[in-house]
Amino acid sequence: MRAKLRFTMFPILIVGVVSAALAQNPGAADENKKQTGAKTSPLAQSAAKPDGDYVGSEICATCHADQQKSFVHTIMGNAMAHPKSALDARGCESCHGPGRAHVDAGGGKDSIPVRFTKDSPNTVEEKNSACLSCHSKGNQLFWRGSPHESRAMACVDCHDVHYGTQAQRYEALGSESRYSAPLTEHVGTRKPQPELCLQCHQMRRAQLQRSSHMPYREGKVTCTSCHNPHGSPNPSQLIQSTINENCYSCHTERRGPFLWEHPPVMENCANCHEPHGSSNPELLKVRMPRVCDSCHDASRHPTQAQTLSSIKNFNRGCTNCHSLIHGSNHPSGNFFMR
What we know:
This protein is mostly helical. Helices cover 36% and strands 2% of the residues.
């Protein structure tokens, strides 16, 4: 009976001690609530209470209502509406810099710390630093030292941040598109692919017009299907480590492994093919049989001119007989025959 009474009195004593402590310090509960609330949304509070030279995106929107209206529908606008870092919470000023001087001057583009327009006095490094402060991982990991970075290209040369809703951007890209390039959720480019890349890469534009070409114009692949324009540790900014691996991502039937491998095929697909476009069938650099004669000597099949009745001139192709030219799994297929 005494044990049961002792366990019954124990919770009552705890409640009494807590009540006495609160009576001596009545503000402790309120202070505890404030501390708990501060931990829930510090980023939202930092955006609502600007400090120093930062004035907050709400002040920017009072004058730049149109830009704000189009920006909130973008991917970056959505990210800044739900910030994950203190920099995201700054909104407009996370890219354009502190706006106190701009507000005190009563507006004027010259008082904006960082501008991205063509008449901007900011250097390419200053413009890119605003982007790289957040975009420094993933596809942008190798931007430093990449061909585009070393040629003093700015991010805004290719990208547009204030593009409005995705539906509006799709409509704009569709009217500007020369090729029916596939559209993705990444619509913040000034022009659709590959037209955006072909502004500078004129040689590739000419190759795409040839009779045998990669299906860019048909909208099946784009430049970024093979290349990473932001930089890559691989040659020619390829996504994969080698040219062959890039090709195998679509042409899986050429991957192998084969019992009998064709050495130039295993070494590099570009030994025989021109990847962007060619006037020869199958993207070949030169026509059959000369593409084979460039490696194979005349010890077996003569490479000099033959009469039209010669079997070696039939259809002008080595693959009439050696059809498994990429590799063979037949036990007697060391000559890649049918």
